[in-house]
Amino acid sequence: MTRRRSQPWIQRYARIIMGILAVVGSLITFYLTIKAFSGGSVACPIGATSGVSGCDTVLSSPYAKIFGLPLSLFGLLAYLSMLVFALSPFVISSENNKRFRNQIDQWTWQLLLLGGTAMAIFSGYLMYIAFFVLKDFCLYCIGSALCSVGLFLMALFGREWEEMGQMFFSIIIAGVVTLVGALGLYANAGNIASTGDAGRTAIPLPTVAAQPPNGWDITTTSGESEIALAKHLNSIGAKEYGAFWCPHCYEQKQLFGKEAFKSLNYVECDPQGNNPQTQVCRDAGIKGFPTWEIKGQMISGTQTLDKLAELSGYTGPKDFKYQLPNR
Length: 327
What we know:
By secondary structure, the chain is an alpha/beta fold. It has helices at 9-12, 14-38, 54-59, 71-87, 98-133, 139-157, 164-185, 189-192, 224-235, 247-256, 258-261, 278-283, 305-312; strands at 65-66, 69-70, 201-202, 239-242, 266-268, 291-294, 297-300, 322-323. The protein has two domains: 9-192, de novo design (two linked rop proteins); 201-323, Glutaredoxin, CATH 3.40.30.10. Strands 5-4-6-7 form a four-stranded mixed β-sheet. Strands 1-2 form a two-stranded antiparallel ribbon. Strand 1 and strand 2 form a beta hairpin. The chain is elongated.
């Protein structure tokens, strides 16, 4: 009598592990989707190089939307699909529908492999964008990427593939299609933030370290539109919370120009800065710089003047002079 070979643990529990990974990924993307549609700031206390919330910087970038919808929504749909693929054989009784369950098992493994490959490749591309293009990071994005890679590895090693050539062919095709699709989707993403910015000058950025209490000098000059927007923001009680050493805060200052910035209600949060109001920042719950408070809403990260005009209900002239440089 031939003794049946025991199945490795990774193959016994592969679908369950993939189900758990899919649930974790779904929770992450569901939270980000809710925040994206509500316009709220995500809870991400760890900042990146400048102290600004990396999550808000990454999630507010042009790369965080596809077809005008938050990328997290598509991630949520992908994770829910992987959850269904992973657990669907368990809902079929093996006693009465053994043949059908075997077919479902075969089909869903193929879908798990293709889906896992696509998600891992796409997540890897997004990690490249975050670290080398946006030069920031988001803990939620990293968590989602780890879930995607985990799903791919479990799909790859969670079963004994009989036709290795077909398996690798499927991985290559799914990977190439995903990478080409990602490059196509984001071909113009670097220019999305500059929509309507034709003719505007990219602001100069600092080249040396900031020194207390004032940090870098504002080198741009304000136009009529910048001054009018700054006065409007002041009139409605809007505040900008920042720190003298924060490069993103300096970008915000450069967008306004030296004359307009004088009209803003700017709150210095660092105790070494000029006229610091550290306790005010603590009471406001500021976790990253810059943070805008407009009509009771907290908005993190450097904002274009067009965005500030939209958020504040500004209706004056909008021929702003400057734009953020393409990174």
